[in-house]
From TrEMBL:
This is Regulatory protein SoxS. PANTHER family: TRANSCRIPTIONAL REGULATOR YGIV-RELATED. Residues 14-112 form the HTH araC/xylS-type domain. Keywords: DNA-binding, Transcription, Transcription regulation. It comes from the Bacteria. It comes from BD1-7 clade bacterium. One of its GO terms (molecular function) is sequence-specific DNA binding.
Length: 287
């Protein structure tokens, strides 16, 4: 695909992703999305699936259930209200869809988070009996990450990841991507949501020659020691792992954080595995 054609497709499908994220509370007309992309309905679904690896309907369902999981953990909203915001007219239908994705009912998911917000961490502790063994110190070589900046709620960084992977697909670079990386510059507990900055991107197996001409943001990850913690479960509970790392592990470790932001490495794909099976490695740079 010629670069000009790839860029043209990329921009059109970015408009679709923007529209989906901006209208998750509303019924989404798939034919309207085709119009936004300026693509014939006869070809729209195949082109979207070719770029993003799932149908538009699957994207909408996945994003709504991810947002519902966050609402269950972070807000006191009744399950009925959360179900309606996710596009389900009955709690029964919402329960079935949520259970199919998360392997647990919405009510049980909320109760587990309330009873033990560090459930993921404790499940690791139970096998070792030593909290210090949960963290691995890794010495890594420096590398670069190219990606798309995100401004606002970290839970919405998927918006920028969708754009990034759409860009990679339209430029036939998907096979060159090594690992998805998210870089997070501020503490969400002490920074206004609108001021939160992050980067959604990836490492490349072979760095593209023309990366500086793509408009992507490039970040340098410095070599050195990193405290690495593996989080298994929904992205909605990642903040609990960060809290434990900084509150419990770091003060006892004898180490200090280096002057660089933490980053996350995403081991599997949210399009391919259930949310409760997502694996994320959290990297904290150390002096």
């Amino acid at each position: 695909m010629k670069t000009t054609t790839a860029t043209h497709y990329e921009r059109r499908f970015e408009r679709v992703i923007d529209h989906i994220y901006a209208h998750l509370d509303q019924p989404l007309d798939l034919l309207e999305l085709a119009d936004i992309a300026c693509v014939s309905p006869y070809h729209w679904h195949r082109m979207y699936r070719g770029l993003y690896g799932e149908t538009p309907a699957q994207t909408v369902k996945r994003l709504r259930l991810q947002r519902a999981a966050k609402s269950l953990v972070k807000t006191p909203l009744p399950v009925k209200v959360i179900a309606a915001k996710a596009g389900y007219s009955t709690i029964q239908a919402f329960n079935r869809a949520f259970s199919a994705s998360f392997g647990i009912t919405p009510t049980a998911y909320r109760h587990r988070a309330q009873e033990d917000p560090f459930d993921t961490i404790h499940s690791i502790q139970s096998s070792t009996g030593n909290t210090m063994n949960n963290i691995e110190i890794r010495q890594i070589q420096d590398f670069h990450v190219a990606g798309i900046p995100h401004q606002g709620d970290y839970m919405n960084i998927g918006h920028s990841f969708e754009k990034f992977y759409g860009w990679a697909a339209s430029h036939q670079l998907l096979e060159q991507l090594a690992q998805s990386i998210g870089i997070y510059y501020e503490d969400p507990a002490s920074t206004p949501v609108a001021e939160l900055r992050s980067l959604a991107g990836a490492r490349f197996q072979q760095w593209p020659d023309n990366i500086d001409d793509t408009g992507l943001t490039v970040e340098h990850i410095q070599a050195g020691d990193y405290a690495v913690m593996r989080h298994t479960g929904s992205y909605a509970t990642l903040e609990d792992s960060y809290n434990w790392l900084y509150r419990e592990w770091l003060p006892q470790s004898g180490r200090e954080p280096a002057d660089a932001p933490p980053f996350e490495e995403y081991i599997n794909n949210p399009r391919e595995v259930a949310p409760n099976a997502l694996i994320t490695d959290i990297y904290i740079p150390l002096k």
